[in-house]
Each structure stands twice: as C-alpha cells, then as structure tokens.
Amino acid sequence: MSETTKDQNVRVEAICDQMITMEGPLLPILHEVQEEFGHIPEGALQTIAKKLNLSRAEVHGVASFYHDFREEKAGKHVIKICRAEACQAMGADALGDQVRRHLKVDWSQTTSDRKITLEPVFCLGLCACAPAAMVDGKVVGRVTRDRMNRILDEVGA
C-alpha cells in the first residue's frame, strides 16, 4: 500500500467528517476515498479508524475483504473477467489465460506501462451470456477470443 501524504490525510479526514453521521459509514467512506485517490492509501486506514473509533485492523479487514478496494492505483483501463462457474463452463479460464499472456501480467496486476489492470471477478450477472467481462465499468457478454483481442486493441494493449 502506498503512503498517505499530509494533503491526502486532510482530504480523508474531510471525507470522514462528511459521512460520519451516516448509518454504517465505513463502506461509503472507503468508496469515497478510493474514488478520490484511485485506491485506498495505507495511511488512510488509520485516519478512518480514528474518525470512526475503530481499530486499524477492523478497517483493514473490511477494505481487504471487498475485492473492489485497491491498495494501489489501477491502470488507465480495468478489465475484469468473470471466473464464476457458468463463465468457466463457457471458456472463461482460457480467456483469462489468453489475456494474461497478452498483457504479461497475472490476475490483480497492472501492466508495466500502467495502461491496463486485469482483475478476476466472481459473477457479473451475465451467466446466460457467458463468458462475461467488464471493461472500464461496462459489461460485455459472450466474449470470444476474437472479441477479447478487439477489446485489447481498443484499450491500447
């Protein structure tokens, strides 16, 4: 995880102050911090914990439980490939292998040029259109090898 600068810490405190009166504010605060910085900076966990009167371990536990929270900034483009059973049955494993080879990264990694982050996801709700992917927040069904090659070309891989 990256360190939090003083300016970032001030912003995290402001986010906490804005949301602290919400019922169950931890998840909305984490989402807002990630929206602001593109990830959850390491020092933000302690700041959030203090503001919510929680332990840092409790905040870290929540942030690390949910796969959408990042410890480092994602690449310019994020490609998520469904790894759930329906998609696996329709070729998602081979699709994932194809993309990992093409990008020269493993799951949850970003290319060296910081252009693309590849993430596994477990169910996009497109089981009838398997295998499914999500590219920069847009779901794509029936992703073939050729369709994925076109997607990779579109994002500059």
TrEMBL record:
InterPro entries reported for this sequence: NADP_DH_HndA-like (IPR028431), NuoE-like (IPR002023), NuoE_N (IPR041921), Thioredoxin-like_sf (IPR036249)
Q: Does the keyword Transmembrane helix apply?
A: no
Question: Which residues participate in [2Fe-2S] cluster binding?
Answer: 82, 87, 123, 127
Q: Does the keyword Metal-binding apply?
A: yes
Q: Report keywords, A-Z.
A: 2Fe-2S, Iron, Iron-sulfur, Metal-binding
| Pfam families noted in UniProt | 2Fe-2S_thioredx (PF01257)
One function term, GO molecular function aspect: metal ion binding
**Listed Gene3D superfamilies:** Glutaredoxin, NADH-quinone oxidoreductase subunit E
Q: What reaction(s) does this enzyme catalyze? A: a quinone + NADH + 5 H(+)(in) = a quinol + NAD(+) + 4 H(+)(out)
Q: How is the cofactor bound?
A: Binds 1 [2Fe-2S] cluster.
User: Which cofactors does this gene product need?
Assistant: [2Fe-2S] cluster
Under PANTHER family, the record lists:
BIFURCATING [FEFE] HYDROGENASE GAMMA SUBUNIT, NADH-QUINONE OXIDOREDUCTASE, E SUBUNIT
* Family of this protein: Belongs to the complex I 24 kDa subunit family.
**Descriptive protein name:** ATP synthase subunit E
The lineage is:
Bacteria, Pseudomonadati, Pseudomonadota, Alphaproteobacteria, Rhodospirillales
